[in-house]
Design goal:
The structure holds two protein chains of two kinds. Chain A is mostly helical. Chain A is built from 16 helices and four strands. Chain B contains two helices and twelve strands; from the N terminus they run H-E-H-E-E-E-E-E-E-E-E-E-E-E. The model of chain B has no long low-confidence stretch (mean pLDDT 95). Classes of the chains: A mainly alpha, B alpha+beta. At the A-B interface, helix 2, helix 6, helix 7, helix 8 and helix 9 of A face helix 1, strand 8, strand 9, strand 10 and strand 11 of B.
Chain lengths: 565, 184
């Protein structure tokens, strides 16, 4: 296999140049889709802001469909392909398996993404991200997503192949690193997700062509959500891996316990795909038993996994900082963290926002009976902007501040603006999520063009507080769009005009990862010594307290509505 | 020595877990079980559980049932604000406390008139796309799916005029799909 390796002089990371190019192209494609998604985001926000109401109804639904597809699928999965190649080829210091298949992945995803967008912008496919049958889109809307998914499936194949290559060519000793293990979790969930997607989108495509007559509307929802929600679980596994990655790079942090962190990822593999149920809790077609078991990821085992990661990631940082001597009080390790480094600040806001806002709201929303208070309200997009945007997108943004110098070999321009960006974007997005959930709690619908119901046979006046929440949604939405636009601008300008950096020495052969166990034995810390992490314990207990209070407050709300049985 | 390198302990699965980590896993596990049991508990002792009574139906069947229900039980009509020629029937549940509510592009049909404190069996279905039954300002939200007749038992608690907002996107007229329930 003729390939060349280079070793980044700044990080010591070793890149197979085939993988290097694939990562760069996938990441750039992701950023371009984020740009489209960001422009549509602004239009959506300015239409849902009651004082502005920019677009007419037909254009609003068209743009909202594009926003969902371009953000939730195209931006994130392109970036995840880069993450998968990084976590396999780069971290294991081996050649990437079948780079030509990597290019098949890339071009299929490009063609699929463009095809679906063409269908949307032609105007006949304003069916939303979810495309619930029997509402029908143009055939190439479905075909584009199918091609994109096949591309992504091939990408996971290249990832698994690369793991085999590394093992066979002995580029590392022992077990794969935790971050690679997390990426593998994401890839396994991706395979499940894409197969579910095939199971529903191929028949739906056939139906749109007139080859089959009918698809059951309830069955569609169940199988579609095995694609729709599970794909968000790929994101969770990917961004948790990035949290560990940033902790390792920024602090040299070591997992508190490899066993615990890997077990938590294993719980994801076993239970996260049950999440389809979250979207069916207020549906007629499933029994209560089915809902209770599935919505809880089988007794909340995947939630347990996230709570474990929520402890072990900051715990690893705290332990590393305490070893460096930041030992005063509960929180010196956190105060003295590199808050001016966007790689760390973005990652930490992602962690806290995902846990406190996205995580808690998600579990409450996914409680069988409480779901009736929130199903299809503005609460739902409020929740997932805290998980997918604050959690995943912000984690991807923060790691990009590392990837631009090391992978793209360019220095980031405007370092001051880079410092501000994660705060601007992350904090405004957290507030946005909260006010969206506030509006949803007051009943405001998602995917709805007109709070005034003009043209309806009756009148209904939303409470004033709902209008206030929607106005705040507008304001913080615009700030978040500015924060996201700033990131795109910084990254694109740096890639084009940033100072070129030395790519490092190249070689025909990979340099294997030195045997870690030998180094550990030599340094005399062969057996594990535990560092106490009291600050993390306090953070975790705070999270739990918020969680418990908010959870039971919602049961209280539920007990006050009409009786249902 | 970090998460991006192979574990320095080859036998990492034999390493002990620190007490603080164990404690957190234990607490999180107990909390997970409490949340799981809460849903089961509410089915036994709670007063807000979504009905499991569902029948397969078709557009024709459900339209016929609703039309028959409206023909027998209409008490008066109301004029639509949007269209002065359109008279919408206001209907009381029948003697068995049953009522039909049909969702279609873009209306909820008919208007129902209920009494506070009584329990009714509301038959909900759609005859075209997915719709969302969102009762405001109570804030109860139920998915309405074509082909499925969902029999939901409801007990209104307070007199008043309630709106049914459609909160599942159903096309260009989605925002005009507003229904009404009176509670006396």
């Amino acid at each position: 296999m003729a390939t060349t390796y280079r070793t980044c002089p700044r990080t010591g990371l070793q890149f197979d140049l085939d993988a290097d190019k694939l990562m760069r192209w996938n990441a750039v494609a992701g950023v371009l889709w984020l740009l489209v998604g960001g422009i549509t985001a602004l239009l959506v926000i300015l239409t849902r802001w009651p004082a502005i109401k920019l677009l007419p109804a037909d254009q609003f639904y068209l743009i909202l469909t594009a926003h969902g597809i371009d953000m939730l699928i195209l931006w994130i999965i392109f970036f995840e392909m880069a993450v998968l190649y990084f976590a396999s080829s780069t971290l294991l210091r081996c050649r990437i398996a079948t780079p030509w298949l990597g290019w098949v992945q890339f071009w299929l995803m490009v063609v699929g993404g463009i095809m679906t967008n063409v269908a949307i912008f032609q105007g006949g496919s304003s069916v939303m991200f979810t495309s619930y049958v029997p509402m029908q889109a143009a055939p190439h809307f479905y075909l584009g997503i199918i091609l994109f998914a096949v591309g992504a499936l091939i990408g996971t194949g290249v990832f698994f192949g690369t793991l085999v290559v590394a093992k066979r060519e002995k580029t590392y000793v022992g077990s794969i690193p935790l971050v690679t293990f997390g990426a593998m979790t994401a890839a396994i969930i991706a395979v499940f997700t894409i197969l579910c997607g095939a199971a529903i989108l191929i028949p739906t495509f056939a139906w749109s062509m007139g080859w089959i007559k009918e698809i059951d509307a309830q069955l569609y929802r169940m199988v579609w959500w095995a694609l729709g929600h599970s794909s968000q679980q790929i994101n969770v596994a990917a961004h948790v891996s990035i949290w560990y990655l940033v902790a390792a790079v920024a602090f040299g942090a070591k997992p508190l316990s490899e066993k615990v962190s890997r077990f938590a990822f294993l719980l994801y593999i076993l239970f996260l795909q049950l999440a389809s149920a979250h979207h069916l809790l207020s549906d007629p077609g499933m029994s209560a038993e089915w809902k209770v078991l599935n919505t809880s990821y089988f007794m909340y085992f995947a939630v347990l996994a996230s709570m474990i990661h929520g402890f072990t990631v900051p715990g690893a940082i705290e332990a590393a900082q305490r070893k460096k001597g930041f030992n005063n009080g509960l929180f010196e390790w956190l105060r003295k963290a590199p808050w001016g480094n966007p790689v760390f600040s973005g990652m930490f806001i992602s962690l806290v926002g995902f846990g406190f806002v996205g995580g808690i709201s998600g579990v409450v929303l996914g409680t069988e009976q409480i779901n009736m208070l929130m199903h299809n309200t503005f609460y739902v997009p409020g929740h997932f902007h805290a998980t997918v945007v604050v959690g995943t997108t912000l984690a991807f943004m923060s790691i990009t501040y590392l990837l631009v110098p090391t992978l793209f070999r360019r220095e980031m321009l405007f370092p001051k603006l880079c410092q501000i960006q994660p705060y601007l974007y992350g904090l405004s997005m957290i507030v946005l999520s909260l006010v969206m959930m506030g509006a949803g709690t007051l009943g405001v619908s998602r995917r709805h063009w007109d709070m005034a119901f003009s043209g309806a046979p009756f009148q209904y006046e939303w409470p004033g507080a709902a209008y206030l929440m929607m106005g705040l949604t507008g304001i913080f939405g615009v700030i978040a769009v500015i924060g996201g636009g700033l990131w795109i601008g910084l990254v694109v300008l740096s890639l084009l005009f940033g100072k070129k950096l030395d790519g490092g020495a190249t070689s025909d052969k990979p340099t294997p990862i030195p045997d870690q166990s030998a180094a550990a034995a030599a340094s005399g810390t062969g057996s594990e010594e535990h560092t106490n992490v009291p600050g993390t314990v306090v953070l975790a207990i705070t999270l739990l307290t918020c969680f418990v209070l908010y959870y039971f407050v919602n049961w209280k709300y539920l007990s006050e509505v009409w009786g249902l049985s | 020595m970090s998460a991006i390198l192979p574990p320095s302990e080859r036998l990492w699965w034999k390493q002990p877990i620190a007490a603080q980590e164990w404690a957190w896993i234990g607490i999180a596990f107990v909390w997970a079980m409490i949340m799981f049991v809460m849903m089961v508990y509410w089915h036994i002792n709670g007063k807000q559980n979504l009905s499991n009574e569902v029948y397969k139906t078709t557009t024709e069947m459900f339209t016929a049932k609703t039309d028959a229900f409206v023909a027998e039980n209409t008490i008066r009509t109301e004029v639509s604000l949007a269209n002065p020629d359109l008279k919408i029937p206001v209907v009381k549940p029948n003697a068995k406390g049953e009522a039909f509510l049909l969702a279609r592009l873009w209306s909820w049909y008919p208007i129902l008139e209920l009494e506070a404190g009584k329990t009714y069996k509301i038959h909900l279905s759609s005859v075209d796309y997915n719709h969302g039954f969102s009762l405001q300002p109570v804030n109860i939200n139920i998915q309405v799916i074509p082909g499925y007749e969902h029999v939901v038992k409801m007990t209104p608690t307070k007199a008043g005029t309630y709106a049914i907002v459609c909160n599942e996107y159903c096309g260009i007229g989605h925002h005009t799909m507003l229904g009404r329930i009176y509670v006396k």
